[in-house]
Every structure is written in C-alpha cells, then in structure tokens.
Amino acid sequence: MRDLFRKRRMWRRRPELKSRYDVVIIGGGSHGLATAYYLRQHGITNVAVLDKSYIGSGAAGRNTTILRSNYKTPEGARFYDASVKLYEGLGEDLNFNLLFSQCGHLTLAHSDRAMFVMANRAEVNRLNGIDSRLITPDEVQELAPTMYVGPDTTYPIMGALYHPPGGIIRHDAVVWGFARGVDEGGAEIHPYTEVQSLERRGDRITAVNTNRGRIEAGTVLNCTAGWSTLISEMAGVPMPITTHILQACVTEPVKPFLDVVVVSSQMHVYISQSDRGEFVMGSEIEPWTTYRMQGTLNFLQDLTKHTLELFPQLEHARLLRAWAGLCDLSPDYSPILGKTEVENFHVSAGWGTYGFKAAPIVGRTLAELVATERTPDLIAPFALERFYEDDLVSELAAAAVSH
Ligand code: PYC
Questions:
Q1: 400 C-alpha vs ligand 1 centroid, how far in Å?
Q2: Is 270 touching ligand 1 by the criterion CB < 6 Å?
Q3: Confidence category of residue 7, pLDDT binned at 50, 70, 90
Q4: Secondary structure of residue 240 in the 3-state scheme
Q5: Residues 332, 397 contacting (CB under 8 angstroms)
Q6: Which of 105, 161, 351, 401 to mutate to test the pocket of ligand 1 (most atoms within 8 A of CB)?
Q7: Residue among 270, 323, 327, 395 whose CB has most ligand 1 atoms within 8 A, to mutate
C-alpha cells in the first residue's frame, strides 16, 4: 500500500521498537523530549522516548505557557532562572520559532500580608541575580493600562511583584522543536506506546514492557508528570505525590490590549493575551485528587467573574475552549528530581503547576545525571530523599495560584 505520509515531517515514524536502548524515557512531553535532546550532547543517542498518546498530549499541551523564575526559595529561584536563560536561547538552538515573548510578569498583592510575601520574594530573587521588584499601584497601572485597578473592588491592588524577564512562549512549538531536535540527533520517538510494567531485578530496572513489546533498558527515566506515581509504583518506588486537576480556558481573539502576564493568587487567576489575541486564563487546582480531566462549571464561573473584575472589556468575549490537565503535587510544592533508590530509575516528578517552565533545565540536568551518574548541584535540593531527611524546599505560596 502506498505510504500516505511524507517520509519525513517534524520527526520520523519509527515502526518497530528495538529490543534494547541505553536510555528509555517514559513520557513524550517537554521534559522527556528535552532530556533526549540534551543526551545527544553527551554522545548518548540509543534512546527511545515513549508516550502512551501523541507527543505533548499531557501537561506540555495543557499549560498556560507562562515562564518565570521569581520563586520564593533560593533553590527554586536559581533553578528556574537557569531554565528561563535556556529558554532565551532555545529558539536559536532548535532553529525553531518558539514565539517567546518576555513581556513581563505581574503578581498582584491585595493585602499587607501579600505585600510582605512579595517583598520577601523580591529580596530572594535579587540576591540570586533575578530581575524582580515590588512596584506601586501607579506602576501597575502603567504596565497594564487597560486593567481596572480602581479602589471600589473586592480586591484592591496594593502593589505587585514585577518580574520583567517573565512572559509567555508557544508551548506546542517547544514540544515540536525539541522533538525535531531529538529526531535529528538519532533518538527515537514512539507515540502510542504505553508502559504496562517494569521488570526489576534487585536495585535495577532491567526491562520495560509496553503494549508494543518488551524493551531492555540501561537507564529508565520517568517523565510522565500527572502519571508519575503510577509509573514509579511499577518500579517499586512510592512517591509522596497527590494528583489534582488544573483547569484553563481561552477566549476568541480580540484586539491586543494586554502586554504583560497578570497573576492574582487571591483572585485565583492568571491572565495573558496570546500573539493571536486570545485571552488565556487559568485558575486554582481543584482540591480533590483525580485523574478525570473533566472541566467544571464552578471553574468557569469563578474564573470569568474574577477576570471580568480586572478586565471588564471582556464582557462580550466568547470562550473558545476550556481544558484540564493533571498536576502531580509534592508535599513542599517543589519538584522531585533525579535519583531514586533504584539505581538506574530516575524521575522528573512533583511539578504541580510549575512543570512546563522547567523543561529545558530538567532536560539538561537529567541528561548530565544519566551521562555522569552524578547529581548536578542545581537539582541536588530536589532529591526524593529530602522527604526522609526532613530537608524540605517549601515553595508554598509562590505559585500563580494560592497553593
Ligand atoms: O506558577 O506561574 C505559575 C503558574 C502558571 C499557571 C499555574 N501556575
């Protein structure tokens, strides 16, 4: 039968799995693909990236595209700063237009307590060389002249944490750019390949069983975000993670009138305007644990109510689509990254609502870990062991939402 597909699109179709790879990466989202991409820099190319669905179908395709590094802990701020810096050069690296717009990021403060927390974050950020400062309501208005900042609102604006390098990027371009780079480098991308079990002998994973056959593996990486606990269970590595849904939605395109990312953790919203003119808006995680990615009416009601308080101009804008994604939340809201008690099974998990921002630096550091068998300093604080040693990295209250 004639092949209906061009021989080569962004990445090649790989009809069969080999019987063995040096590295098997479970999860074909931004983290898994980035890791495969950077492994090539260490000369490791006998690599398979497996995804149970299409590439970028999980958290990489369900976020609100925001990048920033204005975290609360020095460990978090340094780590995400390295990620933003990699993102700054990523379009050129991948030779792929990622539409990265460093339009700036505003976290609104509506109370004395919030002002105190923002001042604290600004200090931590600046001590780590990150451009981040507290600004007044007048400056907020200057940066977002179309936003309603009047006093007669439920949540008057007392100031904001302003983070100029923050912004938005085209999320699916990040996935496609990494995937094309992975393919060019010789690694294999296998969508629709679901991991069903892992074979473990002693302290090592020896094979990965999929719906398309059995693969022997030198190293196995779990980069599956919302499903990370299920894959880790297969390795006999329990994870202190709960899984929740996070919802977002987008309006029809309207004329450009917002050129900064606006976040309010008290109003539970983060809002930006895409290059196409759509307003992209997201909210809180839902408090219950679930894998059911179904949207709720409460979400739409609360989100649109608060968005209209800030942008009454959107009163007649129609919503085009809404979606939900899975968030794997760790107890201290920092990621769980690197080695586990199983020698050749490493994880990128526990990202909560922060995962997409971290993709390039996760890829680079995990690739280094695989190649050298040493944990890079930047990710050492995020080891799974911290929960056994009581050495937490609390990013509580540093999200765009109120967790
Ligand atoms: O923490 O920047 C953030 C974020 C964006 C969307 C959800 N969380």
A1: 4
A2: yes
A3: low
A4: coil
A5: no
A6: 401
A7: 270
Ligand 1, pocket-test mutation among 353, 357, 395, most atoms within 8 A of CB: 353
Question: Which residue CA neighbors atom 7 of ligand 1 most closely?
Answer: 353
Report which protein residue has its CA nearest ligand 1's atom 2: 400
Position 12 scores a pLDDT of 87
Q: What angle do CA 340, 381, 34 make, to 5 degrees?
A: 70
CA-to-CA separations, 130 to 62, 71, 79, 300, 312, in angstroms, rounded: 27, 10, 11, 34, 33
399 Cβ below 6 A of ligand 1: yes
Q: 55: closest CA among 8, 95, 3, 13? A: 13
Over residues 341-367, the mean pLDDT reads 97
ipTM: 0.94
In angstroms, the CA 186 to CA 137 distance is 52
What DSSP designation does 374 have?
Answer: S
Contact between residue 348 and residue 220 where contact means Cβ atoms under 8 Å apart? no
Which domains does the chain possess?
Answer: 2-62+172-240+331-398 (3.50.50.60), 101-165+243-329 (3.30.9.10)
Question: Separation of 23 CA from ligand 1 center, angstroms?
Answer: 31
pLDDT in tens, 179-194: 999 999 999 999 999 9
Q: Write down the pLDDT at residue 201.
A: 98
Cα–Cα dist 319/317, whole Å: 7
**pLDDT of the residue at 362:** 98
DSSP assignment string, 170-222: -HHHHHHHHHHHHHHHT-EEESS--EEEEEEETTEEEEEEETTEEEEEEEEEE
Please identify, by atom number, the ligand 1 atom nearest to the C-alpha of residue 63.
6
- In this prediction, residues 345-364 reach a mean pLDDT of 97
Q: Is 400 in the pocket of ligand 1 (CB under 6 A)?
A: yes
Question: Which among 348, 247, 290 has a CA at the least distance from the CA of 27?
Answer: 348
How far is the C-alpha of 234 from the C-alpha of 375, rounded, in Å? Answer: 23
Among the listed residues 356, 35, 328, 13, the one whose alpha carbon sits nearest the alpha carbon of residue 172: 356
Predicted structure pTM score: 0.96
